[in-house]
Amino acid sequence: MAERSRRSAPAQAGGYSADDMRELTGLDPIRQNPAQYIGDTSAVSVKHGKGNAADGENLTGGGQHLLTEVLGNSSDEAMNGYGDYIEVRFAADQSITVTDNGRGVPPDVNSSTGKTGIEMTFLTMNAGGKFKEKGKGSTYKTAQGLHGVGAACVAALSDRLDVTVWRDGREYRMSAKQGRPGSFADPAKIRSAFTPCKPGDPVVTEAPDKRPADEKKKFPHGTSVRWHPDASIWSGTDIPLYDAYRFVELQSYMVPNCVFKVIDEVSPGASAAKPKVTEYHHPGGIDDMVGEKTAKGTNISPIISFDVPAKYTVNEVIERDDGTQGSEEVEYGMNIRVSMRWTSRDGVDVEGYANAVHCSGKHVDGFRRGLSRGVGKWIKDNRDAGTKGFPAKKTDPVPDISDITDGMVAAIEVLLEEQCFFTSQTKETLNNAPVYSCVSDTVAEQIGAWLSARKNATAAKKIAKAVMDSARLRAKQKKEKEAAKKIKDTLGVSSKPAKLVDCQNEGPGTELLIAEGDSAGGTIKQARNGAWQALFPVRGVTLNCYGAKAEKILSNNEFADLANAMRGGGIGKYFDMDKRRYDRIGIYTDADEDGNYIRSLLLVFIYTCFPGMIEAGKVFAGCPPLYSITYTKGPKKGQTVHVADEAERDRFVDRYVKGGNDLGDLNIQRSKGLGEDNADEIEWLDPKTRKVRVITVDDVDEAKAQAEGALQLLFSARQEDRAARRVWIDDTFEKEVD
Hints:
Number of helices: 20
CATH superfamily of the domain at 29-283: Histidine kinase-like ATPase, C-terminal domain
Shape: elongated
Strand content: 15-25%
Radius of gyration: 42 Å
CATH topology of the domain at 29-283: Heat Shock Protein 90
Distance between the termini: 126 Å
Oligomer: single chain
CATH architecture of the domain at 29-283: 2-Layer Sandwich
C-alpha cells in the first residue's frame, strides 16, 4: 500500500498529481487572499472626509482594518486593566504607529513552539494570548481578538513592520517585510534595504532599555507597533484620516479608563515638526457618546442608562485529560451596558459594540426586541388601566419597534467573557446566539422599571406621547399606502375603458370630451374629429366627490374608467400632469338646470382627482344652444339660428320684431338635449364655430380656498354643512323673489 501511494497519477486523470498542489506556509495564505481576512482591498476609502479637496488615492476599507487590529490589541490591554494610555501616530511617510503602556507582548520563548511571544503574535496565524484552555481560561477577561489572525494580517500586508516591546528594563525589537522577519538598513526610514533572517538567526533582538527618561515615564512598559502598508496590495498607501480618527474616538468611548492621543503629521497644515495633536478621553463611556450626539436639538427624555451583569451557558467542545474531545456546558458571564435617549429628531441612531468592536448582530437585535417588549407592555398596561392623562387610548394602533425607536439615539455594548464570534474577520456582525435572549430580557426588565418609576413619570409620559404619535402617523401612512396600492391596482389595467371612444393622437391638442348621456354621446361620436377628440359619455347625475376618499371615488365605475382614460398615474395627490393621456378636458352637458348640476359634479371630480388641470386652463365647458330659431317665411326661409339661453332668445326676438317682422314667421324650439341635434348640423362642437367657457383660476391659492368653501357649502354631506346650505338656499330664494 505504501508503494502504491507513492506512484504518479495515471494519465487518464489529466496529468493531475500531488506535484500540482501547493502548501502555503507562514503568512502566505493572507497575502494570497487578503480580502478573506481583512475585507475589501480595491475600493478606495475616504482620506479627509467626503468632499474634502485633499482627498486622493488612499488606503481601502481593508487597509483601514489594519489599524483596527493593532489598536484593538492595545485597547484590549487597557480594557482588562493593563494600561491607561495609547498613542497613535500618523507619520508623514504614511506609516502608522500605535504605542501603549500595557504589559508588553511576551518576548520570552514559548515552550511548545520554540518561538517568542512576539513572533507568535505577528508572524504566526492562529496564535496568541486570547485563546482559552480547560481550567485556565485566558489572560484576557474580554477581548476583541478572534482567531489570532489580526496582527499577522498587519505583518503580511505591510512592506515594513517594526515591533518594539519594553519589559523589565529591557527593549525587544522585531522587524518584518511582507510577513517575513529580517532587518532594515536604516531603522528610521521606511524605504530602506531589507535583509531577511537566515535559518537559525534570532528573529527578536534584545538590549537594555536606553530610552530618555521622559519616554520611560510615559511608557514604563508596553508595546509599539509601526507599519507601512504594502503598495502591491493596496490601491494606495495614504492614510484614510476620516475613518482613522473616527475609530480612535470610538475606542475612547469603549475604554473609558484610557486616554487616546492622536499625533497627526499628514493632515493639511500639519508636519513632522508641527503635528496636529488630538486627545480623546471619555470617562462616561457610552453615556458620553449619547450625550454628545444629543447635545443639540430637542430631547424628549434624559439619558437612560444601565450596566447589568448576566450569565449564560454554552455547549462547548473541550479537550479531555486523555487527549480526546467531548462537550460540556460552560457558563460565561457578560456585562450589558445601555445608554439611550429619545429625541424629537427624525430617524433612529442605535449603535452596537461587542468587546469594544463596533458591530451589529445579536446584541443589537436583542436590544430592539427587549425595548419593544418593555415599552410595549408598559404602554398596554397603562392604556388598559385607563391611567389618567396617559397619551394612549384603546382605539389607538399598537406601537411597533419602529414607533418605539423613532427619534432614539442609543448605544448598546456587551462585554463577553466568551470569545466573540463574528461572522467574519472584519468583525461586522456579532453572532453569539445566547447574547440575543440575555440582552432582550435585561433591556425589557430595565426599561420597564425605569418607565414605571414614579420619579420618571413626567419624562415617561413624554416618551409615551412620542411613541403613540409615531404609531398613529405610521397607521395613517399605511392606510394611504394601501389606498395608493388600490388606486394603482384599479388604474393599472392595460385595456381601455369600454365606454371610451378614443382618438388617434395623444398629447398636445387632444381633448377628452365628457358628454351627458348616451344619446348625446352618440351624436358627438359622429360629429367629433376622430384624430384629436376622444369621447366618454356619463349617465346622468354622477357621484359627488367632494370630501370623498380615493377608495370611494374609484368604487364608482364611471369615475374609475375616467381616471383610467386620463392615464395620469392615479388620482388626487397621485395624479401626474406630465403623464396624462389627453391635453384638455371638455364637459358637454345639456343647457338646462340638470345639465348645469351634472357639469358642477364633473368639475368637482376633476378638481379633486386631476389637480392642476383647472389651474393650467386645461378644462372647458361646452356651450351648446338651448334654443333653435327657424325662419318659416321670407328670404331666409328654412335657415336656423341657435341661441344659448332665454336671454339671447329674447334679444333676438326683440330685434326681429322691431325690424317690422312678424313673430309668427319664426319657429322657436327649446332643445330637448344634446342628443336631439343632428351630427351633420352641429356647430357647437367644431372648433371654428363652437363657443366654450374655459374654467380658470387666476390666483390659485386664494381661488382654491374660495372653491373649497363653495364646494363644501354646495356638496358636503356633513350635517352642519347641510344646515348652512338650507340657510343659503332660503336667503338666495328670498332675494330672487324680492
